[in-house]
Write a structure and sequence with these properties.
Blueprint lengths: L8 H10 L1 H9 L11 H17 L8 E5 L6 E4 L3 E5 H6 L3 H16 L9 H23 L2 H10 L2 H12 L2 H14 L5 H16 L6 H4 L4 H16 L6 H33 L3 H14 L4 H13 L3 H14 L4 H13 L3 H14 L6 H13 L3 H14 L4 H13 L3 H14 L3 H14 L5 H18 L11
Helix pairs in contact: 2-6, 3-5, 3-9, 3-13, 5-9, 5-10, 6-7, 6-8, 9-12, 10-12, 13-15, 14-15, 15-16, 15-17, 16-17, 17-18, 18-19, 19-20, 20-21, 21-22, 22-23, 22-24, 23-24
């Protein structure tokens, strides 16, 4: 029988260290988990907008990773390792796909222009960690109204050096604006979306004493707005390129893409509303009101179905989804959501069929969230070998998603692969910052693997690296002075 070889230590820890800002944020946030949104709608939206922008920036599509965090704060940032972070609060604030593309283009410009600080030495690595912790602490303080949280981040993170770094980033905003407008125009987006969004944020900046966290690192001045408007005016007066027929054809394609992206954005926003609201009953009432005015409002009925599932109203959710599936029977998002309802109704076999159908009709026939849900349904049916076959490559491709490692640990344990099970659970504990639990699972993995199994040396190496991080105070949190 073919033996499963655990993923090598270099893969796991290098992947984690390249994405250390996410862990820094997780460690500094006030008892709040950092949740990556990996649903197919949001993934497809990020890809639809991000790929043409990367081409315009001279970057191969897929080299930059757009990550969506479930966080109501309006924020976005470019981080080392070619990562761009967008908060769900920002997606809920934009009014169309051109405004969202503008934010993505702006952050992409920071990366392509080299504005982010490179991790060249350990000293710089630590400095950048504290800078991100500083920014995250300010955002957490604004979100919670807890001044001690902000003070802790400032006191514990070498505020003076971080402040100078943030100032240096602010100086690059105008350059990023110029590049973003060029990328938007080249990629077929309306660059006026950037000015519209900036104007709205600028009003927020003037009106509110505590502006959105985005404005702390992306201050919008009248000069920035004026320069962006002047650049747009210059582009409009420039002579057109290509024939009239080509221009008309191009405009038609842009309109088609615009309509499709805006429809997808509306669906993503409906799902995010359901996932972030503190008042699901109120949200469902608003969705139902919209449907009274417009019974064919697809995003409203879809958002209502998601909210009903969150409320445990599975029968109502299934009814709304069946109504939508009559219109679009091969819609992968609807199939995925129906699979979730069926899974929560204790029907994993029919849920499996929905997830497989959703994968079949997915544009690229692959989505991490759908694969994970399929593995979950397989686990519920005790098809553990099939679930493992899905989860092993999934953890390799997405090494920052702790849930994938947890489920892998469960299904490996069910097959009596105890060494592999403990190794996966150790990595899960590491990702959620549970040091003691991670250490215990690593020790158990070492004990369970045979001496001839490479998993034993991998678990030893990863445990040693965990101890090194512990000694370097990576896990230790600073506390404010009394």
């Amino acid at each position: 029988m073919k033996k499963f070889l655990p993923l090598p230590v270099c893969w796991f820890f290098i992947s984690v260290l390249f994405a250390w800002p996410i862990f820094t944020i997780a460690a500094t946030a006030p008892k709040q988990n950092i949740t990556l949104v990996t649903g197919p709608e949001s993934s497809d939206l990020m890809r639809s907008l991000g790929e043409p922008l990367q081409l315009a920036a001279g970057i191969k599509p897929g080299e930059v990773h757009f990550n969506l965090l479930l966080d109501n704060n309006l924020n976005a940032m470019a981080l080392p390792g070619q990562n761009i972070i967008l908060n769900s609060g920002l997606l809920l604030a934009v009014r169309d796909r051109d405004e969202l593309a503008a934010v993505m283009a702006h952050e992409l410009a920071h990366l392509s222009a080299g504005h982010h600080i490179q991790l060249e030495t350990t000293k710089k690595d630590v400095t950048l960690r504290t800078m991100v912790a500083f920014a995250a602490g300010i955002a957490a303080g604004i979100a919670t109204g807890n001044g001690q949280v902000t003070q802790a981040a400032i006191t514990g993170g070498a505020a003076a050096s971080q402040s100078s770094l943030l100032d240096a980033i602010r100086e690059k905003e105008a350059q990023a604006d110029r590049l973003a407008i060029r990328y938007l125009s080249m990629a077929g987006f309306d660059p006026h979306g950037m000015v519209r969004f900036m104007e709205r944020l600028n009003r927020e900046q003037r009106i509110h004493t505590m502006p959105p966290p985005y404005l702390l690192t992306h201050p919008i001045s009248s000069l920035r707005l004026m320069e962006s408007q002047q650049q747009l005016e210059a582009m409009q007066t420039a002579p057109a390129v290509g024939s009239t027929r080509q221009s008309a054809s191009g405009q038609q394609r842009v309109r088609q893409h615009q309509e499709a992206d805006n429809t997808l954005l509306a669906r993503v926003q409906a799902v995010l509303e359901a996932g972030t609201t503190d008042d699901l009953n109120g949200l469902m009432a608003r969705f139902r009101k919209r449907l009274e005015w417009d019974p064919d409002n697809f995003p409203a009925r879809y958002g209502l179905a998601v909210a009903e599932r969150y409320m445990g109203q599975l029968s109502a959710a299934l009814t709304d989804l069946e109504t939508l599936l009559k219109q679009q029977p091969n819609d992968p998002y609807l199939l995925r959501e129906r699979g979730m309802v069926r899974l929560e109704s204790g029907k994993p076999a029919v849920a499996e069929a929905d997830f497989r159908a959703a994968l079949l009709h997915q544009p690229k026939q692959t989505n991490a969230d759908l694969l994970y849900r399929l593995a979950f349904a397989l686990n519920e049916q005790e098809k553990w070998a099939d679930a493992s076959h899905i989860l092993r490559p999934l953890t390799l491709e997405y090494p920052l998603v702790s849930e994938y490692f947890y489920l892998l640990g469960i299904v490996e344990g069910k097959q009596n692969h105890l060494g592999a099970s403990h190794l996966a659970l150790a990595r899960h504990a590491y990702l959620i910052m549970e040091k003691k639990t991670a250490r215990w699972h690593y020790q158990e993995a070492i004990r369970q693997f045979s001496n001839a199994d490479t998993g034993k040396s991998i678990a030893r190496d990863e445990l040693a690296k965990l101890e090194q991080l512990d000694k370097s105070s990576f896990w230790k949190k600073k506390s404010p002075e009394p």
